[in-house]
Design brief:
By secondary structure, the chain is of the alpha+beta class. It contains 16 helices and twelve strands. It binds adenosine monophosphate and magnesium ion. The site of magnesium ion has 3 residues, from loops.
Length: 466
Amino acid sequence: MVQFDNSYARLPDRFFTKIAPEMAPAPEMVLWNAGLAELLGVSDWDAEICAGNVIPDGADPLAQVYAGHQFGGFSPQLGDGRAVLLGEVLSDAGRFDIHLKGAGRTPYSRNGDGRAWVGPVLREFIVSEFMAAAGVPTTRALAAVRTGGRVQRERGYPGAVLVRVAASHIRVGTFQFFTARGDNDAVRALTEHVRARHYPDASDTLDLYAKIVAAQARLIAKWMGLGFVHGVMNTDNMTVSGETIDYGPCAFIDGYSPKACYSSIDQHGRYAYEQQPSIAHWNLAQLGSCFVPQMEEELGGEHQAVEALTEVLNSFPELYQTAWVAEFGRKLGLADATREDVPLIQGLLGLMAEHGADFTNTFAGLRDGTARDWFLDRAAFDHWAEGWTARRSANWEEIVARANPALIPRTHRIEQAIQASLEGDDSLAHRLAETLAKPFTLKDEDRDLTFPPTKDEIVPQTFCGT
Ligand code: AMP
Ligand code: MG
């Protein structure tokens, strides 16, 4: 039996609007995550519950309000415009939000219809479950359901709901919403809520901030290690729990370029692959400024507060660099990588960029020697490999196998799955969800999923799908 305990709903009224999901005409399950369902104690849930038509006992649905910097510009009021937080369930693995994305209009919908179509819902299901399987902190996907309704975008599409599971949906932008209104009591209440919920060991506000900064440094290093480009790193799309959230126009790099940027709405490459650490740092600066008023009380002055918060903020580059070196060190089979290994790592990345080598297959192919095939200039790779062979750990093969997935959710494959699904065939979506949940083991029959796109298959741009 599922046990709800809705701690967010007990925060002051101005944190949310209580609202039920809209009815879906004819819910139909497309993807169901049986393993996650069991963990949460919701194995008996069906499409009616997942689409929001039936509210389970103990749920207390609401839409959360937040703000956020979108592409650098501040929007003082955003919020769950197409999502409803059903409630929080307590499980053996902890407390989790259950969130219905695409469940209809809320007071925060602005001009949107509150809906999602099946394409972005399938993408988020497949990609977020891959991320979880690859060891990246992330929101999870419990279910993807077709609502039976139509959603109007460039054309009409089948509507869908994603049942998203998260440690919480509290964002940097949630803090910003109250800070922008000068509502210090709310910022304090939110701070206490986040501390109790995510960082119970934090000794004070400054320590809480330090832990959030450290979690983000680790997270972004994980993204970089997978060639993941989030695509919309707005402050409303950054959690304080350190989980990846909001898989919109995200993509994984095929042929490596540090400037990789796929989102159709990111014209200046603000959220390109190589920008992600500095954007995270910038977002964390926005969060830090939300803590100033309460730190001022704790430390007895604005100057002291700003100085202390800035010092924590300035630890980000160092923390990130350490995490990045460890991450890429493991990818190369180095158990104990240090700063001194940066030239070795950059040496390979530089060659990969020069040759447009496939990111995933190069690393996955280090073990069986096929990495070399991705470089036209074999001699240049061999020269790099001499230094690598001399440096790698004794058990490098084991380390490499655990650090480098053979399979990633390639954009063209997801696109093919979405197109097939639109034509009534969900089998590729099922296949991707299943195989990508075990990305480190490659079965022979799945070798086609490791191929980069052919010229005809390339998807040059990705879309939010809102
Ligand atoms: P996103 O870029 O997906 O993070 O969304 C930014 C903001 O737009 C959030 O406040 C969303 O709730 C809102 N939004 C996105 N799509 C829709 C939609 N179809 N209907 C209503 N609100 C939306
Ligand atoms: Mg968002």
